[in-house]
């Protein structure tokens, strides 16, 4: 992004090559390339200086870093593709971990020249969801043509996580309420009859009759 802002990115990545001779355009290219070298040197960590210390300009420095970190070997491509298409959703982890795993691997593949379309990323995000998320996966699959971007899919997944969190909180609240004692005197939850702050109610005729029967049976 810094190189783009300074106007040196197209020179660094080889889109604009150096004009022949010592023309004004060639001098401008040299100036941009020299500035790019300084920019790259300021942006990378000190441990990476060894890879660019002999570079004559920004283009050479960038090429050196690419050879080190964007090696486009068959083994590297296969490993990243396997990671991308096989990344599994762990429902016990926050959904952003799953999203970052897939989108981050897609960026790595693009960096070494592998063409990954946004629709491919969207498909994998839906395809690899855990079985417990099959409902939202089915909904997104049937509406995929209406989803304009990766953000649409990730936004739907984040919303689904929020909805599930609300349902879980509600279920826990209901379970906790069910465990609390119910007062036989006032009918309220949270205390028992002998701790009831309400006036003690008279026993109805049925309860009195039952108590009488129990009393007679004891004698």
TrEMBL record:
Domain CCHC-type: 183-198
Keywords, ordered alphabetically: Metal-binding, mRNA processing, Zinc, Zinc-finger
Compositionally biased spans, kind Basic and acidic residues: 195-207
InterPro entries: Znf_CCHC, Znf_CCHC_sf
Sections of the chain in a coiled coil: none
Protein name: CCHC-type domain-containing protein
Single GO MF descriptor: zinc ion binding
Lineage: superkingdom: Eukaryota
Chain intervals for the UniProt region annotation (Disordered): 195-219
One record GO biological process: mRNA processing
Signal peptide stretch: none
Keyword Zinc-finger annotated: yes
Pfam families: Retrotran_gag_2 (PF14223)
């Amino acid at each position: 992004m810094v190189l783009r802002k300074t106007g040196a990115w197209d020179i660094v990545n080889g889109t604009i090559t150096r004009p022949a001779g010592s023309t004004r355009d060639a001098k401008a290219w040299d100036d941009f390339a020299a500035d790019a070298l300084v920019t790259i040197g300021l942006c990378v960590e000190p441990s990476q200086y060894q890879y660019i210390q002999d570079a004559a300009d920004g283009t050479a420095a960038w090429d050196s870093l690419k050879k080190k970190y964007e090696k486009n070997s068959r083994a590297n491509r296969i490993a990243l593709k396997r990671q991308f298409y096989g990344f599994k959703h762990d429902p016990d982890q926050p959904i952003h971990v799953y999203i970052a795993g897939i989108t981050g691997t897609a960026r790595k593949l693009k960096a070494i020249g592998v063409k990954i379309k946004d629709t491919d990323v969207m498909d994998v995000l839906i395809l690899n969801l855990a079985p417990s998320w099959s409902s939202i996966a089915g909904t997104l699959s049937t509406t995929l043509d209406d989803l304009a971007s990766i953000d649409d899919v990730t936004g739907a997944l984040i919303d689904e996580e929020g909805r599930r969190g609300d349902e879980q909180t509600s279920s826990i609240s209901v379970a906790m309420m069910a465990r609390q004692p119910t007062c036989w005197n006032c009918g309220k939850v949270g205390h028992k009859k002998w701790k009831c702050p309400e006036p003690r109610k008279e026993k109805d005729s049925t309860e009195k009759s039952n108590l009488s029967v129990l009393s007679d049976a004891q004698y």
